[in-house]
């Protein structure tokens, strides 16, 4: 009996050992997996993504490649001859490009076609055109287009296009019309918003009528239109530029008290006001204090300090501030580089200004038109015309153009050096850009270049008189 029990016990132990030695034979509730699940060790399979790709429009693709202004309309007509039916994207793309190069006759032609073909347009097209008309002082065309939007183009006008035209009127000094338009906005079916008020407040301040601006600000509050940061910044900037820093500071405190959070531009305007009063240290302190107020300093704040140092000739201090700015991982923009370019040009050191120009390009910062013009003017002023020609070439490639009087100086300087081919190159670029000297400039060029040729000088004098 005992032997039988021992045999049975040995059999159970051997079964247990065999189960432990073979993991695959563990109990079902440890090994059971749902058939539709994969083992945890296997990576989950990614779903196949079938991204929808828009089919590119050949006309728009070719339009992007077109850099010569005269080819824009030619391309448009060529596609039309091939049977391509132009729609709103086609028209708007060409119109934007033509407006940018100020070919408004061609713009008018395409607008007439839009009317004739009854193509539905978006408001953004007209807002952009109104802005371009304003930049070229074509205010009456902007007004006419605004009124034609609804009747001729079947496009609903919103407060955005209203504000765009209002801003064009203000920017071009048509203050009476801007005021009348603002007061009559309800007749057009609009209720002015903060942007509308901001435009008019800016107008009154530019006219030197701060009381009228203040009354409009009070009206804004009475009509329950909430002021924006821009509303306050416009007024603070005006006061600080007039040397009325304390009044600007009071408005700043009022802004904070009413729960409107200042931004980096607000602090930059206050800093600029302090710099104008000769309080650079206070401006610098304000920049670091703003961080404690929950507004981190930005490039615009460093720019105010650097600009003040540059004007005072403290360029080494400006360089130290630039190093500090980079340590805070701020990448300098064109306005920062312009501080150094402007300083070197004022000091008649155009070669160093040119080095800064190259440095900013290497750093991936695109020079602005004013950057090129400062360096170009610096070389021409110093009589380094061949270097000036290099800058002119870079300017024209980048789509910028120098001032007429400086370009005239370059042409005369190259003539004196006997570089006739270079002068021919300049004239070719001018012809492509549709930029030409006026009569007085041509007269000055011929007289300066032919000063030793008395016969030619007498001939020019006779023609002019």
TrEMBL record:
<feature type="repeat" description="PPR">
    <location>
        <begin position="193"/>
        <end position="227"/>
    </location>
</feature>
<feature type="repeat" description="PPR">
    <location>
        <begin position="298"/>
        <end position="332"/>
    </location>
</feature>
<dbReference type="InterPro" id="IPR011990">
    <property type="entry name" value="TPR-like_helical_dom_sf"/>
</dbReference>
<feature type="repeat" description="PPR">
    <location>
        <begin position="228"/>
        <end position="262"/>
    </location>
</feature>
<protein>
    <submittedName>
        <fullName>Uncharacterized protein</fullName>
    </submittedName>
</protein>
<dbReference type="Pfam" id="PF13041">
    <property type="entry name" value="PPR_2"/>
</dbReference>
<dbReference type="Pfam" id="PF01535">
    <property type="entry name" value="PPR"/>
</dbReference>
<dbReference type="GO" id="GO:0003729">
    <property type="term" value="F:mRNA binding"/>
</dbReference>
<feature type="region of interest" description="Disordered">
    <location>
        <begin position="22"/>
        <end position="48"/>
    </location>
</feature>
<feature type="repeat" description="PPR">
    <location>
        <begin position="368"/>
        <end position="402"/>
    </location>
</feature>
<feature type="repeat" description="PPR">
    <location>
        <begin position="333"/>
        <end position="367"/>
    </location>
</feature>
<feature type="repeat" description="PPR">
    <location>
        <begin position="158"/>
        <end position="192"/>
    </location>
</feature>
<dbReference type="InterPro" id="IPR002885">
    <property type="entry name" value="PPR_rpt"/>
</dbReference>
<keyword id="KW-0677">Repeat</keyword>
<comment type="similarity">
    <text>Belongs to the PPR family. P subfamily.</text>
</comment>
<feature type="repeat" description="PPR">
    <location>
        <begin position="263"/>
        <end position="297"/>
    </location>
</feature>
């Amino acid at each position: 009996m005992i032997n039988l029990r021992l045999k049975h016990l040995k059999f159970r132990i051997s079964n247990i050992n065999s189960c432990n030695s073979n993991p695959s034979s563990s109990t079902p509730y440890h090994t059971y997996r749902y058939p539709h699940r994969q083992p945890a060790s296997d990576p989950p399979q990614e779903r196949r993504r079938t991204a929808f790709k828009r089919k590119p429009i050949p006309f728009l693709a070719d339009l992007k490649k077109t850099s010569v202004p005269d080819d824009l309309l030619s391309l448009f007509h060529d596609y039309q001859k091939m049977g391509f039916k132009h729609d709103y994207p086609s028209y708007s793309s060409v119109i934007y490009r033509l407006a940018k190069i100020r070919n408004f006759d061609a713009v008018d032609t395409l607008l007439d076609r839009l009317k004739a073909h009854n193509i539905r347009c978006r408001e953004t097209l007209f807002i952009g055109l109104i802005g371009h008309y304003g930049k070229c002082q074509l205010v009456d065309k902007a007004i006419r287009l605004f009124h034609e939007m609804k009747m001729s183009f079947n496009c609903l006008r919103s407060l955005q296009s209203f504000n765009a035209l209002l801003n064009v009127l203000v920017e071009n000094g048509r203050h009476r019309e801007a005021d009348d338009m603002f007061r009559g906005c309800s007749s057009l079916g609009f209720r002015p918003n903060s942007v509308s008020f901001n435009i008019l407040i800016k107008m009154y301040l530019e006219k030197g009528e701060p009381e009228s601006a203040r009354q409009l600000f009070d009206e804004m509050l009475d009509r329950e239109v909430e002021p924006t940061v821009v509303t306050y910044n416009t007024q603070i900037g005006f006061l600080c530029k007039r040397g009325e820093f304390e009044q600007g500071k009071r408005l700043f405190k009022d802004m904070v008290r009413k729960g409107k959070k200042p931004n980096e531009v607000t602090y930059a305007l206050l800093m600029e006001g302090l710099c104008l009063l000769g309080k650079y240290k206070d401006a610098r302190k304000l920049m670091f204090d703003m961080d404690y107020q929950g507004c981190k300093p930005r490039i615009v704040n460093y720019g105010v300090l650097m600009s003040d140092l540059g004007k005072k000739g403290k360029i080494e201090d400006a360089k130290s501030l630039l190093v500090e700015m980079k340590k805070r991982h701020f990448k300098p923009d064109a306005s920062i580089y312009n501080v150094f370019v402007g300083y070197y040009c004022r000091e008649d050191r155009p070669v160093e200004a040119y080095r800064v120009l190259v440095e900013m390009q290497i750093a991936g910062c695109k020079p602005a038109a004013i950057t090129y013009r400062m360096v170009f003017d610096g070389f021409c002023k110093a009589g380094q015309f061949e270097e000036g020609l290099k800058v002119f070439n870079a300017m024209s490639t980048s789509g910028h153009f120098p001032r007429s009087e400086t370009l005239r100086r370059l042409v005369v300087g190259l003539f004196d050096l006997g570089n006739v081919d270079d002068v021919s190159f300049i004239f070719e670029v001018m012809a492509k850009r549709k930029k030409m000297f006026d009569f007085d400039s041509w007269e000055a060029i011929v007289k300066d270049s032919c000063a030793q040729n008395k016969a030619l000088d007498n001939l020019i004098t006779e023609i002019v008189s």
